[in-house]
Design a protein that fits this description.
This protein is of the alpha+beta class. It has one domain. It has three helices and two strands. The chain has a two-stranded parallel ribbon. Strand 1, helix 3 and strand 2 form a beta-alpha-beta unit. The termini are far apart.
């Protein structure tokens, strides 16, 4: 994990910018459907307060 974080910093990658869709746990089936379609970037399943 430490190596991954070091690479993110070195390469200037910001994971929060890569996530295109956020879903709460109760909407996880929607998240999987979207990922299966392949028409999105990264999808994250998050706690309620993290949904934007």
């Amino acid at each position: 994990m430490e190596e991954l974080v070091e690479r993110l910093v070195r390469w200037g990658i910001h994971p929060e910018d890569l996530v295109t869709n956020r879903f709460t746990l109760d909407r996880v089936s929607e998240a999987y459907e979207l990922m299966n379609e392949g028409k999105c970037g990264k999808v994250a399943v998050v706690f309620d307060e993290e949904v934007k």
